[in-house]
Every structure is written in C-alpha cells, then in structure tokens.
Amino acid sequence: MVAASTKATLKNSFGSPLITMDLFIEDFDDLSVEKIFDQIQTRQHDKRQVQTIQELEHQKQQELEIMHKIEHCNLGRSGGALHFNCLLDQMAEMEVKKFQQGHYCCIRFIMSNDFTKVVFDGKLTLEDYPLLSKRWDYKQTEMHEQILLPEHFQPGYIVFRFRHFNPLDDYGESEERFVMVSYVPIDNTLPAKLRFSYSVNLNSMVEKMNDKLDNQVKYFEAGSLDEITVLRIFYLLYPSLDMDLYVTSKQQNEMIPALKFDKPTSRGRGPRRMIR
User: Fold this and answer.
1) Which protein family is it in (predicted)?
2) Contact 138/130 with Cβ under 8 angstroms?
3) Which pLDDT does position 182 carry in this prediction?
4) Lowest mean pLDDT among 95-99, 110-114, 145-149
5) Dist CA 222 CA 236 (whole Å)
C-alpha cells in the first residue's frame, strides 16, 4: 500500500506522462543499467502488442508535448545533472533594470504556471520597508537575529540589497551587496513539481542575476523567513567570520577536560566511555 500511495503521489505531482513505469527489485544487482534496460524493453514490447492504434497515437502526442516543453525550457545536461535554463519574461527584465538603478530595495520572482519562465511578482521600496535602508554593523551583536524580510512574503526567488559596514575593514567602509534567496517553505505547502522547479532553476537564475546586475550575487536556499537574518547574511558575504567563530568554539571545547565514567558493574556493558 505504501508503494502504491507513493507512486500515485509522484504521478499526480510530476504528471503521468513523465512517470510511465515502475520496477520492483529483489536484489541490489537488479539496479544495474543492463537489467533495468532489459526490463524496460520487455515491458514496452509486451505493451505494444496489446495497444490499439488510437492508444499509440495518443501516447505519441503526449511524448511530443513533453519534448516541446523540454525544448522550450532549454533543458541541458551538465555534470551529470539536469538544469533548466530559466527564461525571464519581458516584465521581469524591465523590473530587474529598475532594481539595478536603485528604484527598489527588493524584488521577487515566481515560476510561471507552465514552469517555463520566471516572472516578476512583487517589489519593495525603501518607503514601503525602511528596514532595508539601514546599514548593518556586525559589531552590534544585539541586531544579529533581526529578520530582514516581511513575514507576509510568499515563496519564490527574492533579491535584495544588503547595506552594511565591512567587518573585515579596519575603517569599516560602507558597502552594498546583492543577495538572492530561494525561499521554498519546508512545511510542504507547495506542490512537489513547483518545489522541484525552484530547485533546478536556482543556478540558472543566479547566472541571470549576475549578468543583469553586473555584479556577483550571493545566494542561498531558505526553508523559512526566520533564516534570513542579519547574521546569516554576514556569514554568507564573509565566510571567514563564521570560520573564526568555529575555531574559537573548537579551542574552548578542547580546553574542557573530558568527562570520565566508571566502568559499569553489570556484565557485557562494554569498556569505559569517554565523552567530550
């Protein structure tokens, strides 16, 4: 029942034309390419013998529609993984230019209904959301947990300006960097197909933003808006800050003597344990 339920869920999420076959195996060796290929060939041969001409034509039409969608999405193979080269619609292109010119402090994009384009879905100005106009200082530790984006923000690709003072500069030079967040909630409120689309389009979207904004965009994936804090962005822009904290914490742990426990009196309980 679990297998049948999982298969039905995947077919509903990705579409039955994309998942046309399921295989049951009893041995790890059955996962070899040769055996899987033989199974597919055998099933397709048996299926064609009982299919009518109408069914074959319908199947061919479905395959053509899928191939057309794949071609429209500029699907390419790189490094053994599939990546969609997402397309920005005309309005998104215009809004990115306005964002670069400083008209907005934050913009958001979502996937189109047919998953072939990334479309513009909203913006924030400094008048709408003055929090992003603040220049953050890493030394002000009381502000590290400040959440940077409004709580009503919906899932999508969010690009914003992060104004701050360079924590690695002795003079604390003021800087402004572009940050992109792929926000997909972890509570499974989005369909699996939409979550998959945001994931596979992420690298392509980052490349688009780097090209359109003439600047290197730092990015990360977030499952909750609570993760988009001042401290998280500082660690993203300056990884050495996070490394310094890790080294300090490790040194402190090494100074603490190991806890020792007496050997248990019962038989078969094992040797003395040490916990750090």
Assistant:
1) Belongs to the actin-binding proteins ADF family. Twinfilin subfamily.
2) no
3) 94
4) 110-114
5) 13
Domain coordinates of the chain in residue numbers?
A: 2-72, 87-244
Three-state SS for 107-122 is EEEEECCCCCEEEEEE
Given this model, what pLDDT does residue 76 score? 45
Q: Where are the alpha helices (DSSP H) in the chain?
A: 2-14, 33-50, 53-72, 90-100, 192-200, 202-213, 230-237, 239-255
Asked if 132 and 99 count as a contact pair (C-beta separation under 8 A), the reply is no
Q: Which comes out higher in pLDDT, residue 87 or 145?
A: 145
CB 167 within 8 A of CB 138: yes
Residue 156 backbone class (left: φ over 0; alpha: ψ -120 to 50; beta: rest): left
Of the listed ranges 133-142, 187-196, 221-230, the least confidently predicted one is 187-196
Q: Any idea which fold 87-244 has?
A: Severin (3.40.20)
Helix pair 192-200, 2-14: axis angle to 10 deg: 60
Cα(176)–Cα(239) distance, integer angstroms: 17
Would you put residue 248 in left (φ > 0), alpha (ψ -120 to 50) or beta? alpha
- Burial status of residue 229 (CB atoms within 10 A of its CB: 0-12, 13-18, 19 or more): middle
